[in-house]
């Protein structure tokens, strides 16, 4: 897996970034209005090779790949480049591919920045009058005319300036009376032209991601400076949390472009749909990002003195020249579910790689073989996503096969899988319908005992956990503290050679099944709350413990546990007295990025199954265009969640800077899981109301399960604050 640019690509990005910072400053962007074209900037881009970036080397170009062009477009979006850059990149390539000698002179002048050429998106035989991006300054347009690809010469008189939303060089061109030259005919030529439009979708999407990122940076900077009620407005969650949400969406949008380019490069079956989804996602995410960023400026954002309005308008102007972006999600639905094909461009080199590697394939095969050999239909019937799916016999077999503690380091006795292989393993378990939260908690407890436990504790408890004989629960949350575990009030007081524990723990999931609970207790009330805590292992069968069930509407049992004078030896203490935070930090070694994509995938598969079963106007529901579009939207959300999780995993595995990427993956995927669960239970109603075994029961269950995904493991609000602070540099939003 790789999210890094090559050294050469980083140099390309830095070169264009420096040039555009100087030559496409907001002052220059404003100066280029109202025509929306900066001739000096254009000439400078040409001198750097930007305009011929996608032209093959044999035709005098640089011969770079789509990914390189996407890097340029992200910088162009960040700086609101004044000119039809995405259109020029694909048109210059078309001139080289289809024009030959008859367009060599034009191609040379376009590459040198001496002329502008653009393209028409629709068949000019059917629609002779079209809005053309760059049409105001383009002397030539490449277009489809029925079965031919033609070059249309556009004289100055045919290019009429017209006020438009973002002061871009847009013009309505009437092609009916303009001179044309046929470049090529037939299926191959049509496919080449169609592929150019697909490339444009990706390049404009990359540009929109750049627009969105810069707008969010500007909003965050303003929120750090602007004060209200005596403090920066960035401390207000009403300001910071929406920006955190949108940072996740804009990052995901950039990665969806990368995924589409990678899919095209690999010839993946989903490549055409990936192009459509990337274009739809970025048009939507960028529009929401610039609107929220402008809102952050308040009334000042409405004034022309502040630059944020330029981003707001450009975010809409760039994609709408193609038409309604909603058509793109419909197109993706047809490509995914109706067999619609699309001609795709040649991707060129792509360093970005989302493959989990050979170890991931090996562990997946091993898990599949284990389940085939060891799991009976009776066992499968009791599988459940929660602790209620715990099976003692299966737990021991998994331990014996070294498949129980996959992320636990080898020095502790675990499998020690790489972060990438662990993702694949979790997906493999989900594909078998098996989820094991008991193992996830037990491996964390094992690591803490190994790092901080006494010899007696290791002898009494650690071996039993590692063999799969027993499981453990977590005693962190309390009725009055919620996600703020450091506010724990459950007391541990010295008692002879040991400790007495009194208090209550809430959401002690699995306590009814476990032998031990890992407890965080207050040992010193006279110091700051995070300094007066100590961790213990407490046997749940000890005298003075009461376990009371708490049932959720998700078909899940959790517990409230009461501790009344519970006595444990000092040897069951973990780490130093009042050193609980340090002890707890050992669990960070098991961090893997988080995310709910494995559930999102299974939910999508269940919805697809139901859509094939449900009849709608005499046909399977999955043949309905609206249903296809909604399933495509869920696919986009699934891919976005996967990509954010992959990024979080990659930075951990490769020891890269980590700007709250784990919280981004968890928060964003849980919110998408919840929104899609609501939509898919609607789409498949009324059958989805049933708990009938099979896909209906799954959709029903996923809807209920998703409600808790934004709560446990830290609420979305907690993670939004972390994202705002670490991802956007906003001030602390919690007291």
Automatic annotation (TrEMBL):
Domain Acyl-CoA dehydrogenase/oxidase N-terminal, chain residue ranges per copy: 6-113, 358-469
Pfam families named in the record: Acyl-CoA_dh_1, Acyl-CoA_dh_M, Acyl-CoA_dh_N
UniProt key word Flavoprotein: yes
Domain Acyl-CoA dehydrogenase/oxidase C-terminal: 200-335, 601-727
Keyword set, alphabetical order: FAD, Flavoprotein
Transmembrane intervals: none
Classification via InterPro entries: Acyl-CoA_Oxase/DH_mid-dom, Acyl-CoA_Oxase/DH_mid-dom_sf, AcylCo_DH-like_C, AcylCo_DH/oxidase_C, AcylCoA_DH/ox_N, AcylCoA_DH/ox_N_sf, AcylCoA_DH/oxidase_NM_dom_sf
Highest taxon above the source species: Bacteria
Domain Acyl-CoA oxidase/dehydrogenase middle: 474-551
Cofactor dependency: FAD
Database matches in Gene3D superfamilies: Acyl-CoA dehydrogenase/oxidase, N-terminal domain, Butyryl-CoA Dehydrogenase, subunit A, domain 2, Butyryl-CoA Dehydrogenase, subunit A, domain 3
The keyword Flavoprotein appears for this protein: yes
Recorded family membership: Belongs to the acyl-CoA dehydrogenase family.
Protein name, per record: Acyl-CoA dehydrogenase
Species of origin: Sphingomonas oligophenolica
């Amino acid at each position: 897996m790789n999210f890094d640019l090559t050294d050469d690509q980083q140099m390309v990005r830095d070169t264009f970034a420096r040039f555009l910072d100087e030559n496409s400053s907001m002052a220059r962007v404003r100066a280029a209005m109202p025509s929306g074209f900066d001739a000096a900037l254009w000439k400078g881009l040409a001198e750097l090779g930007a305009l011929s970036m996608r032209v093959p080397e044999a035709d005098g170009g640089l011969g770079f790949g789509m990914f390189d062009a996407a890097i340029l477009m992200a910088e162009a979006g960040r700086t609101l480049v004044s000119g039809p850059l995405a259109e020029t990149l694909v048109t210059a390539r078309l001139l080289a591919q289809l024009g030959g000698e008859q367009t060599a002179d034009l191609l040379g002048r376009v590459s040198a920045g001496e002329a502008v050429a653009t393209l028409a998106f629709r068949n000019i035989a059917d629609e002779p009058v079209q809005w053309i991006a760059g049409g105001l300054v383009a002397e030539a347009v490449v277009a489809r005319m029925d079965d031919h690809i033609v070059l249309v010469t556009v004289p100055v008189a045919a290019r009429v300036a017209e006020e438009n939303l973002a002061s871009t060089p847009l013009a309505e061109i009437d092609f009916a009376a303009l001179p044309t030259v046929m470049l090529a005919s037939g299926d191959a030529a049509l496919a080449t032209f169609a592929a150019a439009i697909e490339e444009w979708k990706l390049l404009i999407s990359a540009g929109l991601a750049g627009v969105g990122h810069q707008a969010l940076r500007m909003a965050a900077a303003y929120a750090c400076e602007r004060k209200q009620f005596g403090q920066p407005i960035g401390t207000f969650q009403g300001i910071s949390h929406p920006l955190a949400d949108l940072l996740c969406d804009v990052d995901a949008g950039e990665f969806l472009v990368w995924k589409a380019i990678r899919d095209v490069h690999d010839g993946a079956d989903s490549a055409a749909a990936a192009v459509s989804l990337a274009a739809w996602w970025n048009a939507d995410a960028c529009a929401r990002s610039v609107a929220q960023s402008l809102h952050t400026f308040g009334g000042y954002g409405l004034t022309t003195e502040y630059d944020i309005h330029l981003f707001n308008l450009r975010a809409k102007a760039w994609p709408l020249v193609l038409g309604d972006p909603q058509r793109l999600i419909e197109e993706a639905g047809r490509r995914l579910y109706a067999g619609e094909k699309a001609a795709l461009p040649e991707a060129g080199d792509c360093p970005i790689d989302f493959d989990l590697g050979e170890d991931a394939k090996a562990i997946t095969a091993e898990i599949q073989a284990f389940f085939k050999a060891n799991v009976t239909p009776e066992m499968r019937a009791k599988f459940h996503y929660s602790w209620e799916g715990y099976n003692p016999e299966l737990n021991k077999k998994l331990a014996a096969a070294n498949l129980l503690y996959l992320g636990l380091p080898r020095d502790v006795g675990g499998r020690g899988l790489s972060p990438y292989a662990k993702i694949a393993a979790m997906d493999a378990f989900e594909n078998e319908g098996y989820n094991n939260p008991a193992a996830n908690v037990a491996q964390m407890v094992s690591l803490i005992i190994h790092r901080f436990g006494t010899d007696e504790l290791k002898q009494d408890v650690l071996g039993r956990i590692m063999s799969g004989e027993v499981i453990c629960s977590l005693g962190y949350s309390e009725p009055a503290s919620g996600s703020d575990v450091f506010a724990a009030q459950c007391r541990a007081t010295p008692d002879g050679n040991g400790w007495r524990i009194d208090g209550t723990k809430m959401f002690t999931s699995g306590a009814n099944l476990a032998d031990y609970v890992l407890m965080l207790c207050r040992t010193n009330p006279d110091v700051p709350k995070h300094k007066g805590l100590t961790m213990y292992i407490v046997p749940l069968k000890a005298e003075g413990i009461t376990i009371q069930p708490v049932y959720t509407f998700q078909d899940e049992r959790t517990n409230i546990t009461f501790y009344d004078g519970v006595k444990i030896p000092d040897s069951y203490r973990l780490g130093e007295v009042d050193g609980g935070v340090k002890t707890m930090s050992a669990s960070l070694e098991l961090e893997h990025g988080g995310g709910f994509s494995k559930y999102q995938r299974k939910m999508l598969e269940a919805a697809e199954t139901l859509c094939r079963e449900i009849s709608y106007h005499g046909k399977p529901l999955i043949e309905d265009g609206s249903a296809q579009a909604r399933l495509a939207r869920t696919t986009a959300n699934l891919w976005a969640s996967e990509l954010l999780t992959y990024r979080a995993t990659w930075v951990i595995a490769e020891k890269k800077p980590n700007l709250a990427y784990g919280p981004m993956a968890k928060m964003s995927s849980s919110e998408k899981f919840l929104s899609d669960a609501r939509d898919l239970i609607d789409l498949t109603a009324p059958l989805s109301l049933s708990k009938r075994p099979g896909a209906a029961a799954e959709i029903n269950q996923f809807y209920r399960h998703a409600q808790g995904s934004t709560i446990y493991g830290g609420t979305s609000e907690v993670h939004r604050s972390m994202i705002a602070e670490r991802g956007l540099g906003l001030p602390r939003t919690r007291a």
